[in-house]
């Protein structure tokens, strides 16, 4: 048996933090426990309360500084934590302000008696004029102090200047800058594209969640107004991606939680494109939960934003899909026609989706909806035509969407069944059965089940070919469900 780690080791700190988080303890309580149990200095205790290594905290600090300085690394951050010990380095008021904003603390939280004894009088004066708000997650805006007695002469002049200096210090501190915002947007585009083609969708889910957690953490801090709006946009798109992925994994209630967060972010950002894509994602969630009227309502609301890009094509397609599933064939065909009109308008202009990938409606995806609607309407020929068109489009696309391809092959199999061509059903399904189990998401599994159900109810049901198809579908669904519920491990950085 390995020896028990020494008190104050990373394992001990992680165990304490996990236990306190499970009880709902805030960061301030966790930092206090770190100090009491392990004798940490205040700034070190707050870092451990967030579970960050020195390097991770330094990276967050540099992002927060936004290129306006000061910058740090793991070594310098460690020296700031040790000060006023001889091996440490004194922290300035600006460093304290950034750390406080980063940790969700106040500047006073990061100082103890030893620090105060070592601080110059000018810094102590600034602290005295800096209000403390125990409920504020970020550095609060300084307010004018109420002196016990009126100030006069030079003392009044000095106090007024100190107050202006304190306000300026607060106003210029931000935990995000243009470069980090651009990186967040690039990361979001990467996740949306990788999810369509990556062999491990759970890995993309985890990376998306980590990035969203970072953005939520930044939003607890202080930013310039234009940067804060962009942060809400990033948070909204990441939440929408997480909602879509969660729905694909078969967890509709949890997906709805993510999409509510996305809609709040979209409204805060006042971004029509994000608002429309959030509605599209909500429509998707409602559809696969069997709430077809709600799916239509969400798609209709999304169209009201008149957003740029391909989202309008998808919203009309989603209307058509839900109408068809609800048995309203004329409404479904009308919505398909509107999707064609929207696609023609997009082709006439410069098509640009802000995120792309999962949040786009390329020709292959458009054709997939058309094929499914025509199949539900009983038109085998038109379903096959749209499915073949979609598969051709997918081969020509830069991003090869495996989930869309699988659904197109299932539609082809359904069309062969509808046309009473038993030999073509299993052949059409072969590419889906060869697909990695991780990419047989909940929508793919549901469409496989629908195909098996329709096969059992058809003249093919009692035949050897019919039983073979049903057995193959059952195996494919079982393998996929197992693959998509297996935890994916990742390693933590060490201090």
Any chance you could write out the topology, listing elements then pairs?
Blueprint (H helix, E strand, L loop, with lengths): L9 H13 L4 H12 L3 H8 L4 H12 L8 H9 L10 H11 L9 H6 L2 H8 L24 H20 L5 H20 L3 H19 L5 H24 L3 H18 L2 H17 L3 H12 L7 H15 L3 H20 L14 H14 L3 H17 L5 H17 L3 H12 L8 H15 L7 H20 L12
Helix pairs in contact: 1-2, 2-3, 4-5, 10-11, 10-12, 11-12, 12-13, 12-14, 13-14, 14-15, 14-16, 15-16, 16-17, 16-18, 17-18, 18-19, 18-20, 19-20, 20-21, 20-22, 21-23, 22-23
User: Major sheet, described briefly?
Assistant: none
CA-CA gap between termini: 23 Å
Indicate the CATH architecture of the largest domain. Alpha Horseshoe
Radius of gyration: 29 Å
Shape: elongated
* Total number of domains: 2
Structural class: mainly alpha
Number of strands: 0
Would you identify the regions where 5 or more consecutive residues have pLDDT less than 50? 1-6, 131-148, 487-495
Detailed description of the structure:
There is one protein chain. The protein is mainly α and 495 residues long. The protein folds into 2 domains: 10-172, no CATH class; 178-483, Serine Threonine Protein Phosphatase 5, Tetratricopeptide repeat, CATH 1.25.40. 68% of the residues lie in helices and 0% in strands. It has helices at 10-22, 27-38, 42-49, 54-65, 74-82, 93-103, 113-118, 121-128, 153-172, 178-197, 201-219, 225-248, 252-269, 272-288, 292-303, 311-325, 329-348, 363-376, 380-396, 402-418, 422-433, 442-456, 464-483. α17 (329-348) packs antiparallel against α18.
């Amino acid at each position: 048996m390995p020896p028990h780690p020494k008190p104050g080791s990373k394992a001990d700190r992680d165990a304490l933090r996990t236990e306190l988080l499970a009880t709902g303890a805030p960061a301030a309580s966790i930092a206090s426990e770190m100090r009491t149990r392990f004798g940490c200095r205040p700034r070190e205790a707050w870092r451990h309360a967030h579970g960050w290594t020195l390097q991770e905290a330094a990276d967050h600090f540099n992002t927060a500084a936004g290129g306006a300085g000061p910058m740090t690394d793991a070594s310098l951050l460690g020296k700031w934590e040790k000060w006023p010990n001889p091996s440490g380095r004194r922290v300035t008021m600006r460093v304290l302000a950034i750390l406080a904003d980063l940790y969700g603390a106040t500047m006073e939280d990061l100082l103890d008696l030893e620090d105060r004894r070592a601080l110059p009088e000018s810094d102590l004066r600034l602290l005295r004029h800096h209000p403390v708000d125990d409920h504020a997650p970020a550095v609060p805006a300084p307010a004018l102090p109420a002196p016990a007695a009126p100030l006069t002469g030079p003392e009044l002049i000095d106090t007024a200047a100190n107050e202006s200096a304190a306000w300026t210090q607060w106003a210029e501190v931000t935990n995000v800058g243009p470069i980090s915002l651009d990186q967040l947007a690039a990361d979001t585009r990467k996740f949306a594209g990788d999810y369509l083609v990556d062999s491990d969708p759970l890995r993309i889910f985890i990376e998306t969640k980590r990035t969203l957690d970072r953005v939520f953490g930044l939003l607890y801090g202080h930013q310039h107004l234009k940067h804060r709006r962009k942060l809400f946009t990033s948070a909204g798109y990441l939440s929408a991606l997480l909602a879509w992925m969660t729905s694909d994994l078969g967890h509709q209630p949890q997906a709805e939680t993510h999409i509510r967060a996305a809609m709040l972010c979209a409204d805060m950002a006042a971004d029509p494109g994000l608002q429309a894509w959030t509605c599209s994602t909500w429509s998707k969630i409602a559809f696969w939960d069997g709430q077809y009227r709600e799916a239509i309502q969400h798609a209709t609301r999304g169209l009201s934003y008149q957003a740029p890009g391909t989202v309008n094509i998808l919203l009309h397609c989603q209307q058509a899909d839900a109408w068809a599933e609800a048995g309203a064939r004329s409404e479904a065909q009308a919505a398909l026609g509107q999707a064609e009109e929207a696609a023609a308008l997009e082709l006439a202009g410069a098509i640009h989706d802000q995120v792309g990938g999962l949040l786009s409606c390329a020709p292959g995806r458009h054709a997939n909806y058309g094929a499914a609607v025509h199949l539900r309407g009983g038109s085998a020929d038109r379903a096959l035509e749209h499915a073949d068109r979609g598969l051709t489009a997918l081969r020509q696309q830069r991003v090869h969407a495996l989930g869309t391809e699988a659904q197109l092959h299932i539609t082809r199999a359904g069309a062969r069944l509808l046309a009473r061509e038993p030999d073509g059903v299993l052949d059409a399904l072969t590419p889906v059965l060869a697909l990695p189990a991780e990419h047989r998401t909940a929508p793919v599994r549901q469409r496989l089940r629908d195909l098996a159900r329709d096969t059992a109810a058809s003249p093919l049901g009692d035949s050897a070919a019919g039983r073979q198809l049903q057995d193959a579908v059952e195996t494919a669904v079982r393998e996929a469900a197992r693959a998509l519920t297996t935890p994916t491990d990742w390693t933590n950085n060490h201090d």
